[in-house]
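Annex B. Sample input.
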Amino acid sequence: MGSGRPAVKRSIGVARELTIEDVENLERAKLPAFKVFRDSYHAVARLIAIGLNDQEVALESGYSVGRVVQLKADPTMQACIEAYRNADGEEFRTARDEYYRNLIANRNLSARKINDRLTDEDEHIPIKELLAIQDSASDRTGYGKVVTKKITMDLADRLAQALAASAKVINGRPIKMIEND
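Annex B, continued. Sample output.
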């Protein structure tokens, strides 16, 4: 084998304040913003390509502003945006305007109908439907479910588990005897 990588002498310097330059020069992992380029991402790319700002794109696409910014920073998304800038003309803008006006109108209409149904005292709404509405609305507004598990073990329990596990390993293997002549 070769000598390997040369040793690097590392040291810890004097504690100091973090500067803006330190943060700007920080190396960050370049992870893609998505695993699969979905149709909804194409819609975001088209909206950006026609010149909408981040807030408008978020409003029309249903994504958060932070997610739109994250998508815009991805090289694959940037290439898609550029392709739409070169390909789509006035016909896309007109079709998009009509489609999104209808989509937003339908969203608002359905929200008003849900509200009317919820406020109607004579209307009986099953608890499952109310929970589904509440879960969906909570998730979309940043108050989704948070699941936490608390496991309490003491040292005696952990030792008992370790002993039981090691006994299985020791007792579970056949022993092969090798005789020396």
